[in-house]
Fold this sequence. Notes:
two-stranded antiparallel sheet, single chain, about 625 residues, mainly alpha, four-stranded antiparallel sheet, globular
Amino acid sequence: MTHSMSSWxxxxxxxxxxxxxxxxxxxxxxxxxxxxxxxxxxxxxCFLGLYWRAGVFITDTETLIAxxxxxxxxxxxxxxxxxxxxxxxxAVVADGYVYGRNYGQLxxxxxxxxxxxxxxxxATLRVxxxxxxxxxxxxxxxxxxxxxxxxxxxxxxxxxxxxxSFLLNLSLARQFAAVSRSLLALQIVTMLATAMLAVVVFRxxxxxxxxLTGVSAGVASVAVLPVGFWAGLPxxxxxxxxxxxxxxxxxARSREPAALRVPLLGTVPGFRALAYVLVGLLAWIHAAExxxxxxxxxxVDVPTAPSNDRTSLAFVVAAFALSLAPAxxxxxxxxxxxxxxxxxxxxxxxxxxxxxxxxxxxxFDVGGTxxxxxxxxxxxxxxxxxxxxxEGATATLDxxxxxxxxxxSGATDYLGRGKPEFAGTNLAVLExxxxxxxxxxxxxxxxxxxxxxxxxLGRIEPTDALAVALxxxxxxxYAKRLPVHVQVTVRYLLPxxxxxxxxxxxxxxxxxxxxxxxxxxxxxxxxxxLLGSQVxxxxxxxxxxxxxxxxxxxxxxxxxxxxxxAVTLLAARVxxxxxxxxxxxxxxxxxxxxxxxxxxxxxxxxxxxxxxLPVADAISDVIGRI
Length: 626
């Protein structure tokens, strides 16, 4: 069944209004795919808004807020550098001025900040955001009615509930105590990116499997993975995750027959170029991550491309070069060197105001030595990347570091680094995502791979290979730095979690559980989230557990459920009578991830900031007083 994007505007229109409507429908199909994708986007925003907290979770955010405030006033720098100037992690000094970083993320947030200013001129921000959330919920109900072909029932049941919720929230609404527009803008952009991530995962999976599997993967990418935890925290990781999934989707589309026709050039590989364009945009947020993503993409793309003729390569290279322009221009404006991003400059807390930190002079000769400069930069980057790959591989193979990153992280005490209230809150990858215990079945294919390695490699889908390559690239990039304080769910690897989710969907035994025991998986998941979350919360409240103890309880639970899923999946490979038990294990592992996302938002970390929805704030206060 297909669902078009038509009838978004529920009235008959003609003339210019009709053309606008058709343009919106075409844009909707490009962005969301169909009505299901649009409904998933709206539903994700509603889910995230339930526990959205306006507050600074990690001190790095203070730098982003200060830089966005500066951008809103028309400048890149925060303030002149001095002994008493702005200091926070991520702030740097160049030519006597303090700068921030992640400028791609910040400039994307700037229009939202302006829009919040307009809203604040007619209503308090809390009331305005509450109204927008309920409008989103009402639109989501309408989309569900269209998809299920029950528009009347959805209107009769959903609209009164949404209206009642709005009135209740309105009666409880109070002005924010101390929340800046820049913080809210950064959070909104991150949540929009999260919602789009769910849509892209849905579209990626749906191109290979039925829509219900795609919807489930899209929902899981936010509600089961800790992406939902970081969605309201304006770090870069969720935006990077969206770009990586976008690269994977564009790459998958580039292997299909459809092509783009451009005047004078003829048929060109549009989606292939889009994958590289997204890498270029990633460089505007984090240059090192973009370099490693580029290496992974090129290593898989060039050998498997449908064509590597001159026109195709020239088009891809030109598109990639243009996508790098924002990052290179920003680098030149701040450091004076297109190859030196803000992250490579002197940290502001060192009080360095050396003129050597930036400016065109002393950086490179812009005259006749451009070729030598480019060669020098390529060699320099190549040397750094080579060293990083070796160090990353060595760190990955370090047993202690591997265990703390992937299996058990809570034993490490980070008290004294960062905010002390976060000490003991870290979860390793399997503790945060017990669903990844399903990867154990990959071990059952090792023997066949060894028997026919060449044949096995020949059967690997290029899209799967790219997902693995991108994941490996990020692991190698960050292995030496992990684990770190306040990583909570190994946030540096968060961008790879949706990629690993896609690979998990691609595993036959896991997909068999979903196909043959779908009803059991769904009902077990729903029951475990609704009842299990309450049991977990009751236990935390009854024992008066700190946030660290609560996090470690989730860590033990997650690790146990990951082991349960692994054992039952291996048993199902031996005897299919174990499949029902494995299906339950799959659902419980997914539910544990959702429970952590919800409880961390409503209870564990509720001391950070204020909930945007007044009802959520009231619920959190009640939990805190029990």
